[in-house]
Design a protein that fits this description.
This protein has one helix and two strands; from the N terminus they run αββ. The protein is elongated and about 130 Å long. By secondary structure, the chain is mainly α.
Length: 110
């Protein structure tokens, strides 16, 4: 194989020609178009933002309702605490000067 030379041939078509190649064309529609995908994506994002917005509105309304309920009972709670303080003061449980104790000043604590 080393010393032998191979005869080179020039490939050519057969004298009668090649046989006809039979093929079926691919279908032209192969799924949704790019514009349809973009449109559906934008629609999904807009729908998601709408739902988030509606949830935020409902949550804000619930918080406002809870806040108004707390504001409504705040005077009642304050009156109860004032009554408790006055009774404690009458019983001598609270000194007249709550900022002094044994001659040493200390800040009020809750």
């Amino acid at each position: 194989a080393r010393g032998r030379r191979l005869k080179r041939t020039n490939p050519a078509s057969p004298p009668t020609g090649y046989p006809e190649v039979r093929y079926r064309p691919k279908p032209t529609v192969r799924g949704p178009s790019g514009a349809m995908i973009w449109g559906l994506s934008v629609l999904a994002v807009c729908g998601g933002f709408y739902r988030v917005g509606q949830t935020n509105i409902a949550r804000r309304a619930e918080k406002e309702e809870k806040r108004e309920a707390r504001f409504a009972i705040a005077p009642l709670l304050q009156a109860e605490e004032d009554l408790r303080y006055v009774q404690a003061r009458r019983n001598g449980e609270v000194s007249s000067n709550v900022y002094k104790s044994e001659g040493i000043w200390f800040p009020p604590t809750v």
